[in-house]
Amino acid sequence: MKKLKLFLLMAVMAIVALSFVACTKDSGGDQTVKSNDALTGESNVLVTYFSWSSSNNTKTMAEYIAEYTGGEIFRIQPKTPYTSNYNEALDVAQTEKSNKVRPELFENITQEQIDGYDVIFVGYPVWWSDAPMIIYSFLEANDYSDKTVVTFATSGGSGLSDSNLKSTIDANFTSGLCITDISSSSSKTRVENWITELGYHK
Questions:
Q1: Where are the beta strands (DSSP E) in 4-146?
Q2: pTM, 2 dp
Q3: What are phi and psi of 110, to 5 degrees?
Q4: End-to-end CA distance of the chain
Q5: Residue 174: its H or E element
Q6: pLDDT digits over 67-111, tens only?
Q7: Which of 41, 55, 128 is nearest to 86 (CA)?
Q8: pLDDT at residue 40 in the model
Q9: Which among 8, 47, 103, 177 could disulfide-bond with 71, CB atoms 3.0 to 4.6 Å apart, if both were Cys?
Q10: How far apart are CA 62 and CA 47, in angstroms?
Q11: For 128-144, what is the mean pLDDT?
């Protein structure tokens, strides 16, 4: 009887252990993504960005910025994700730009939360010489008139392409940065030097 109880106890413990491992694996993913409820406002810097999920180049740049500024991160995501096929994603982006579409956001930040930050970094991949339309969906939902907005971008070869953004919202824009090869060993240093020049290094 004692052996049976011991066997049952060991079986239950094994099941619990396996369940824990499975949950740990399933709970992985993008740890930089915070819902708007998770933003604390403890920093005066907020790093927001949209990154095409199949490359996540802009995500990498956003993480560098957050590291050097001590800022909090918020990932801008469309309710309907873009396809992982690059050419198809660009076709969708071109259609959205031509028709001035404002894709629905998976989640946005409230004005009250925006008010808790002084500096808002806004990052994106450059698509068709502009920011993706999801960035416009994000920015047009709130008032940034008393904020400093800093744009940053990743691109295969074009520049920052933020002139349309600057004419869309009322904000105090400062010098942005576009990096064409975020995987380069010098890119992180370049981001740090830029943050230092802006005066936002923690």
A1: 45-49, 72-75, 119-125
A2: 0.81
A3: -80, 160
A4: 64
A5: strand 172-179
A6: 999 999 999 999 999 999 989 999 999 999 999 999 999 999 999
A7: 55
A8: 74
A9: 47
A10: 7
A11: 96
CB 120 within 8 A of CB 111: no
- Length in residues, the chain: 202
Both tokens of 29, joined, read 């993913």
- Give bridge partners of residue 172 from the DSSP assignment: 148
CA dist., res. 136 & res. 168, Å (int) = 8
Looking at residue 176, its pLDDT comes to 97
**In this structure, are residues 130 and 153 in contact, taking their beta carbons and an 8 Å threshold?**
no
Give me 177's structure tokens: 């940065």
Q: What is the mean pLDDT of residues 41-57?
A: 89
- Residue 60 to residue 56: CA distance in whole angstroms: 6
pLDDT for residue 37: 54
